[in-house]
């Protein structure tokens, strides 16, 4: 791996940290549990959805969940027909409480496709210098736990189907709520095979 590529990865991570750092008010997990009744239909009571196209919320960083809910409500940078209706009546306090509740739960473990683990792990840990794809772990960490201070989400154990959709949405700019277009720029340089492999690798990462 070239020194230039390593510096590029570190610079991208530093930029995203700067753009993602903002004031944040913690929510009330007990209140969030009560308010989560409607969310349970898709995400389950403990935040571990069984439908692989819907993300697991359990164990996700509180600040990250809050931001996603706010972005859904704004409806510009992140859009989803189902979520638009769900967030319509939520206040900022409601969002913070829901985020506090789900972040207090533990994400269930998943498994990876053995045929995709090698490629997925290679891209996640080292990127693809030839294509200009930075190592995913430079922001999401070696174990995929993310970085709550920088608002980088936890990705270990997440459904691969959901991750594939998320990366493809960034790739096509259907989703644009990433700081400094960081994820859009990375996903745009990834092949369909690489996206599928990384997503599968992360589903099995513990």
UniProtKB/TrEMBL annotation:
The segment(s) forming the Cytochrome c domain are 27-106, 115-206
Q: What does the record give under GO molecular function?
A: electron transfer activity; heme binding; iron ion binding
User: Cellular component terms, GO, for this chain's entry?
Assistant: periplasmic space
Sorted keywords for this record are: Electron transport, Heme, Iron, Metal-binding, Periplasm, Transport
Q: Does the keyword Metal-binding apply?
A: yes
Q: Which Gene3D superfamilies match?
A: Cytochrome c-like domain
| Cell compartments where the protein resides | Periplasm
Q: Which InterPro entries did the record assign? A: Cyt_c-like_dom, Cyt_c-like_dom_sf, Cytochrome_c4-like, Cytochrome_c_Oxidase_Subunit
> Which protein, by its recorded name, is this?
Cytochrome c4
